[in-house]
Automatic annotation (TrEMBL):
A Pfam short name: Glyoxalase
Name this polypeptide is given: Glyoxalase/bleomycin resistance protein/dioxygenase
Coiled coil region boundaries: none
InterPro entries: Extradiol_RC_dioxygenase, Glyas_Bleomycin-R_OHBP_Dase, Glyas_Fos-R_dOase_dom, VOC_core
Gene3D superfamilies: 2,3-Dihydroxybiphenyl 1,2-Dioxygenase, domain 1
Keyword vocabulary terms for this entry: Dioxygenase, Oxidoreductase
């Protein structure tokens, strides 16, 4: 069993409208935009990162907004719900705020004894808030939301699967253990995690296979401390038969990718070097930052990319 996995690092989704996405995440949810850069493989598309004030792993929600992308189809083989932690007693504030701002898809449920407020993102993304106690992660203080109710970071992610067996075995290899089961949902927990140590496996054998598009989660990334830890994890996964990419430099972390047995794209990402490597911590996410290979496109991209945060 691996001990290097620290919990969720980030979750990356697809969107249609960069401006609408940015407004929803910063103004409705109150997260900080900590990086404004571009997709490594499609530099005419933003890669937008949102998190708490420092961009702490376990709090990072990112988006690829493709202007002409179709809507995603929900189903098996994807992250169905991205779940954030809020302090005990905060759900009343959030429900009132969401209703005032016209957020759709509002409903309540209790899962494993936790009260959850479900809602939809700008493209129908599946989100939920869960009340927790003892979450010491500092919220972003720059939004119009009191710290007593603000989002702390990820609580968990729910993976929708036709058959959970292979993914459960993979997570157990990655240091997670089953904690409980309710109906078709198995909760997997990583002890001593970074605050984002829960993965729920939802078995839906009759669901259609998910089709990615606007509102879909593209991949979920798991955190490791550094390059050495990542290489250890990679070797163990390769030795267990997984087809994994070489290490890829993503400027703010180093990544390897592989497909989990249930169809979800997994990433292992380092905590280092972080989002302050090329930007003053006081001004994260303000300027357009470009990967080295796309630096020559700056003039064109600054002219063509939608204006956000101005």
């Amino acid at each position: 069993m691996l001990t290097q996995i620290e919990g969720i690092h980030h979750i990356t989704s697809l969107a249609r409208d960069a401006q609408a996405t940015d407004r929803f995440v910063t103004e409705t949810l109150g997260l900080r935009r900590v990086k404004k850069t571009v997709n490594f493989d499609a530099p005419d598309v933003y890669h937008l990162y949102y998190a708490n004030g420092t961009g702490e792993p376990g709090t990072v929600l990112t988006y690829f907004p493709f202007a002409h992308i179709g809507a995603g189809r929900r189903g098996s083989g994807e992250v169905g719900t991205t779940v954030f932690s809020v302090p005990q007693g905060a759900l009343g504030f959030w429900e009132k705020r969401f209703r005032a701002l016209g957020v759709v898809g509002l409903s309540h449920e209790v899962r494993f004894g936790e009260d959850r407020l479900l809602f939809s993102g700008a493209d129908g993304d599946g989100f939920a808030l869960v009340e927790t106690t003892g979450d010491q992660r500092a919220p972003w203080a720059g939004a119009d939301i009191d710290a007593e109710v603000a989002l702390r970071g990820f609580h968990s992610a729910s993976l929708v699967l036709a058959d959970r067996g292979g993914t459960q075995a993979l997570l157990e290899l990655m240091g997670y253990r089953p904690e409980g089961e309710e109906g078709r949902v198995l909760r997997m927990v990583r002890e001593g995690a970074n605050g984002a140590g829960i993965i729920d496996l939802e078995t839906q054998p009759d669901a259609p296979v998910a089709r990615q598009g606007a509102g879909s989660v593209h991949h979920i990334a798991f955190a490791v401390a550094d390059d050495a830890a990542q290489l250890t994890v990679r070797k163990v996964l390769v030795d267990n038969g997984f087809q994994i990419t070489p290490v890829i430099d993503r400027d703010y972390f180093h990544s390897v990718y592989f497909r989990a047995p249930g169809g979800v794209l997994f990433e292992i990402a380092t905590n280092q070097p972080g989002f302050a490597r090329d930007e003053d911590p006081e001004h994260l996410g303000e300027a357009l930052k470009l990967p080295r290979q796309h630096a020559s496109l700056r003039e064109t991209l600054e002219r063509s990319l939608p204006k956000i945060g101005d």
